[in-house]
Model the fold of this input.
Amino acid sequence: MSGCRKSRANARAFVVAPYVIDANDRLAPAELHCCPYATDGHKCKIRKQQWRVRKTAVAHPLLVLWCVQHGHCFTIYPPGHVPYGRQRLAPIAPDGQPLGIDDSGTALWCSTLFDAALDAAYGDAWARECPGGTHLWWSSQWRRLARISSLLGVCPDLPQPLRDQLAEVLDVDGGLLNGLAADLRSGPGYQARGRAACAVLDTVDARWPTYCRLVEAGWMVGLWSRPMFPAGGGRRLIVTPFRTVSARGPPGEVAGRSSPTNLEPGDFTAMDPCLPLPATEVSDGYGQKSGDRD
Done:
């Protein structure tokens, strides 16, 4: 169907919701009554389209929903993952709970997108040639290091205002990002990129709510479309809860985020009722106007 397959640049948003065991003994998200395209005031009509199996990253089928009213289908991603991702972005289980609780420091980020940086920091270059093949190719490591550098705000080519915004969203010291970017400008080798990424990862918590911070940062630098999270019992979708900034990401999206909220681990719907919703909130048309709270 048209609308089921959208390019990364043109995708409006992607929806993130916890997957838990349902009555059929299957990992599934809670019922959703609203689609990412519900900005015209028309009531959504959501139908289950299919269960999609990913070859990489997500180990269980993902639910694809179809909105009859708006003529689009969209995939529900579990916490820790992003569209087109070959590895999880953060060490979080499908239900939103943290993984690797016995690890610490950069070890928490093993088996994530940041594997490329962890290996690079130790001088472990992935294979340029390998009899029999491998999934750890040098070209892949270099591309991921470039994405990681932008995502974490240490890429020397990032405009300074954007780097400052990334520091705020990631909740890291802006001076640290500036210093690491300056180091990479004078020595941009793969080991230096890996060490710079690890320096940032050492300062952030690999658990909640860093995943939300990372997916928002990725949207800001144009790596993927904007993440949205269910709220109000699945009748609304809201963007990540951070202070308002602009983004370099996919066109046609309205910038704006609310101030930080008090979210608990694994709770992707309990938004602080004392804070205003961002202007990009969408609802299912059941009489809930933008900004209304439950």
The first helix runs from residue 115 to 121. Residues 1-10, 249-281, 283-294 have pLDDT under 50 and may be disordered. The chain is about 25% helix and 15% strand.
